[in-house]
Specification:
The protein contains 17 helices and 21 strands. The protein is α+β, with helices and mostly antiparallel strands. The strands form five sheets. It has a seven-stranded antiparallel β-sheet. Strands 7-4-3-11-10-2-21 form a seven-stranded antiparallel β-sheet, covered by helices on one side.
């Protein structure tokens, strides 16, 4: 039987999912099942999040891996408190802006190879979370992921499409370049892509997960995996030394928030870009929105997100090196000031002065009221294209976002964290958790957060509809891409206001999201993106 698994000519509606004892939402059925398995073993939401995150490195390697970074927001019910974890890595201490710029053909950071690779942070997040808040051991939490890697799993429709795309691109970019040979060995069939329904096994990945589980990640940062990473880096012109990995620790941070119409919207502070979503909402709360599907609503959303990105791209970087206090960007009076810049025509906003004025996401909840919003990413697909030989570790290319302009806030420097696109979100009201939410997809992420929050708070949509509603994405200047299902009359009106609006060929670029809400009676309500292979598991 021959068919295209992505061809769906008929409308398909998903409804919210409800449960009481636990819930896991993510972009992979197998990863979701891993989280549920751990919950049923007696683990809590934190154990489920770690189990799901580890499984995602196996079953969705096209978007994340053991060389990823991660961030987490963790609600602990007994504490009535939200905790933040920044597990993004820094650049190698031996890297130099001047040297990289001298080697660059176009004066910008390279996107692939060893130069944009940062210290991977995600693996360190797992024992950090489990030791502080988990009920099970790291070894127990990683068991499902190890089993998937060792025994293999079949490719789902969206995953197969991403494998096919990556294989094509890697052949175009990296054929004949030996530093990328390991990627082809691990993730293709003698150079040919895996396809829908085919089985893939990742034995090197299983071996590495076992080492991580047995050593609480020390093998990854101080032992044999780190040694191989450094050896390979030095052989192929990278900048890593053992100290870069051995000194790395995840960092507990205070989440930041704005109050939006009675709800507190929470994000991880810079170097993450969650502040973009908060700045946009801080502007948008100055307006009243009575109707979702109208030109005025979309116009104001468009303008607010452009203003927020203008500030973020000018100021946000490693918080130790920011030139301003990022809290100033979230002051209500600054949001009100920026709101006044919005007219009825599309603008080209510049950054303000507050002193004067292709990622995986998951969320989990348990019956005790604990909830986790977690995100993990290689940045661009398989990241840098570098795979650690014999261990199956694909390395992210987060450093591609650094600037080689020494005057820029996000200029490359040794042991510096870059502006980071991945962001988990969380909603509270009063001192109660409403729940975690997130939307994957590079610079789409804060835009997705704004749209999802407004869909629920302003327009009363349930979690599933808040995710499935037509989306838009700012690209650059006055250019926006919109979901193919957008109302054509609104598109025409937006164009008349000066927006350069383009209808996307499909909805794949608009992110992939999940939401869990906890009702006052303890019932969990979940929504999962229809634009991907996503799933909800619960009991």
């Amino acid at each position: 039987m021959n068919y295209d698994p992505l061809f769906q000519p008929y409308a398909s509606n998903r409804f919210c999912v409800t449960a009481r004892n636990g819930m896991v939402c993510t972009g992979s059925n197998l990863a979701t099942a891993a989280g549920l398995e751990v919950l049923r073993k007696g683990g809590n939401a934190v154990d489920a999040a770690v189990a799901t995150a580890a499984a995602l490195t196996v079953v969705e390697p096209t978007a994340n891996g053991l060389g990823s970074d991660s961030f987490a927001l963790v609600w602990i019910h007994d504490d009535s408190k939200l905790y933040g974890l920044n597990s993004s890595g820094y650049s190698p201490k031996n890297i130099s802006l001047e040297e990289v710029k001298a080697k660059s053909e176009d004066g910008t950071m390279p996107k692939f190879g060893w130069t944009p690779v940062m210290v991977p942070g995600a693996v360190k997040a797992w024992p950090t979370l489990v030791k502080r808040f988990g009920k099970l051991s790291l070894k127990e939490d990683l068991e499902p992921a190890i089993r998937y890697a060792e025994e293999g799993y079949p490719l789902s429709p969206m995953l197969a499409a991403m494998f096919e795309r990556s294989t094509m691109l890697f052949h175009q970019r990296f054929d004949g370049k030996p530093e990328f040979d390991e990627w082809f060995r691990v993730f293709t069939k003698n150079g040919e892509s895996y396809h829908f329904g085919e089985m893939i096994r990742l034995p090197d990945h299983a071996k590495t997960l076992r080492l991580i589980a047995e050593t609480d990640a020390d093998a990854f940062y101080k032992g044999e995996i780190a040694e191989q990473l450094v050896k390979q880096s030095q052989r192929d012109g990278g900048y890593f030394c053992m100290e870069d990995l051995a000194e790395y620790e995840s960092t507990w941070v205070e989440p930041i928030h704005v109050n939006y119409r009675g709800y507190d919207v929470w994000e991880i502070p810079p170097n993450g870009q969650g502040i973009v979503a908060l700045m946009a909402l801080n502007i948008l709360k100055e307006f009243e929105f009575k109707e979702k599907e109208c030109v005025d609503t979309y116009h104001k959303q468009f303008e607010a997100i452009k203003i927020a990105f203008a500030d973020a791209k000018h100021y946000v970087t490693d918080p130790r090196m920011m030139k301003i206090d990022y809290n100033d960007l979230l002051r209500p009076e600054y949001g009100a000031l920026r709101a006044k810049e919005i007219t009825d025509k599309a603008g080209m906003p510049l950054f303000g002065d507050p002193a004067k004025s292709g990622t995986v996401y998951l969320c989990t909840a348990d019956g005790e009221g604990n909830m986790v919003s977690y995100i993990q990413s290689n940045y661009m697909g398989f990241g840098s294209g570098i795979t650690v030989e014999g261990y199956g570790v694909t390395l992210q290319n987060r450093g591609a976002d650094f600037s080689l302009d020494p005057e820029a806030a996000n200029a490359l420097a040794p042991h510096k964290k870059s502006y980071h696109t991945i962001i988990p979100g969380f909603l509270t009201r009063g001192n109660k958790a409403v729940g975690p939410f997130g939307v994957m997809g590079g610079y789409m992420q804060p835009q997705g957060h704004v749209q999802v929050v407004m869909n629920m708070v302003d327009f009363g949509l349930n979690p599933q509809m808040a995710l499935d509603a037509p989306r838009w994405q700012w690209m650059e200047g006055k250019k926006f891409e919109i979901d193919p299902s957008f109302n054509n009359a609104i598109v025409q009106q937006l164009s008349r206001r000066g927006h350069d609006v383009h209808i996307a060929l499909n909805g794949l670029g608009f992110g992939r999201g999940q939401i869990i809400q906890r009702l006052d009676n303890g019932v969990l309500v979940g929504g999962c993106e229809s634009r991907t292979d996503s799933n909800i598991a619960c009991y």
